[in-house]
# Entry
Amino acid sequence: MSATPTTDAAGAAGAHTPAPGAAPRGRMIAAQAALELRMALRHGEQLLLTVVIPTLLLVLFSAVDVVDVPEGGGGRVDYVAPGVLALAVLSTAFTGQAIATGFERRYGVLKRLGASPLPRWGLMTAKTAAVVGVEVLQVTLLGAVALALGWSPRGNWAVVALLLVVGTAAFSGLGLLMAGTLRAEATLAAANLVFVLLLLGGGVVVPLEKFPGGVQEVLALLPVAALSEGLREVLQHGAGLPWGSLGVLAVWAVAALAAAARFFRWE
# Structure
């Protein structure tokens, strides 16, 4: 009787021995971003904040003479639509992200993810990618509704994209700073309060010209006002790159992200 052939030890090791280890960082970030995006789209309160409210405001302020808007540059929807796009970025990158991250921190989710092979900067990158994914859906939906209401956008869409990206960076930094320094309940209250205040006083639907001169100058330095006015210059008036608005957003983005990186607490 012949002996059963044996497999070479090296071959067996190469064929059957597992090689445990972390996946490539790009793959981990992509997987986490996809998870964050699915969670955001399944969250009813988040969808109310990021999709339903901006859409209702767009329809309401475009169709009904609620506030007086500056004359020139098209119809009422041409003034309202850029401001609502800015509000959509605010709701997703700041309010929604601050609340979600604050409660993830409270329940220990961030602590557990921080101990995983995914680096902490990778987690922040994944969260930012998910925010951008939601914003793409928001802009698509709001743009379609605005076009149905008679919107006639002008200007260069590459400039619009640049403003939205820098605005997203500014609001994300502020949201992460709030979520990483305050208790979850305080973050929930503060983020919603800031959202309402900026909706009313950030030049989103109420023109800054309606406020007194000194107040106007202060409000114009807010990131949502800079984003709203910059988008209006491009989409309503067909202007080129609005350097003033872009500069305000860039300063907020650098300051907020630096502060978030310095003071964010994972526990």
